[in-house]
């Protein structure tokens, strides 16, 4: 099978590439050539900007890929450019989506109103009614997140009759190479020897589907090599969505931390730990479809996944640290007040 990957040099991508090569696929990457990655030498490369994808149609015609995997279609134009470029050239496309398309995400970010649903959402669950979820943090039209919208990407990819599509809705992805350093705020406190970590009570109960990078890459590779995924949408992620409290405790166990997690009422939480989300709305996904239809299962178990992630995170801390997020004096003061109230029976 000939596979062309748009992107593929960062974080999840190299793991996908290696899995496809293991499956005897002929893999070509289209990318800018600005990122180095440990890729098998049999992988071919075409260099260019995705905004000018159609200019490379002649090169793609020589490759005649069976499947085009788009690792980062963020905005509507990306999807339009994708289908217009490969219509008549490829048999199908696989696009990487996100669970932020679900209505639960809009409720969580307080973009829309509605009652919480404690049932994990499957692929047929309602989507957000409000588009462009990140415009409040990207107010300029030339910023990527101003026009970011995976719902519009999905509509185009799944609505193209002449180029069948598959969409994979990804969870929070963690692991070595994670540029967002998703474990950092907890792990730094643990490695700094903090005796306790403060966690808002409602957040402690909140569930979020996560996925280790190599396991997510396995799911993506399965979707590429299996033709039966055509015209299907899949949630990708761990089978059980941990609560935030469970997640912190697992990180602590893997990190060798001996401290405790203390739950704090929202009104008594230090200001630097307050977050604007509605923790009633879980981001827990039902991932049964991909498990049943593609026999997907995690290759790396949870304990090993966290071990690898923590080892990488310790060796690769963020280049810039917002020290206001680690106001230990305020956290100690909040903890002292909690102890005082408990002593007085408050």
Query: Helical element count?
Result: 13
The number of E-state strands comes to 11
Distance from N terminus to C terminus (CA atoms, Å) equals 67 Å
Major pleated sheet = 7 strands, parallel
What percent of the residues sit in helical stretches (DSSP H or I)? 25-40%
Mean pLDDT: 95
Task: Look up the CATH topology.
Answer: Rossmann fold
CATH architecture: 3-Layer(aba) Sandwich
What global shape is seen? globular
Number of domains: 1
Radius of gyration: 22 Å
Class per helix and strand makeup: alpha/beta
Strand line-up across the major sheet = 3-2-1-4-5-6-10
CATH superfamily: NAD(P)-binding Rossmann-like Domain
| CATH class call | Alpha Beta
Q: Quick gist of this model?
A:
With about 350 residues, this protein is of the alpha/beta class.
Structural overview:
This protein has 13 helices and 11 strands. It is an alpha/beta fold. It has one domain: 3-Layer(aba) Sandwich (Rossmann fold), CATH 3.40.50.720. Strands 3-2-1-4-5-6-10 form a 7-stranded parallel sheet, with helices on both faces. The protein has a two-stranded parallel sheet with strand order 7-9. The protein is globular, with a radius of gyration of 22 Å.
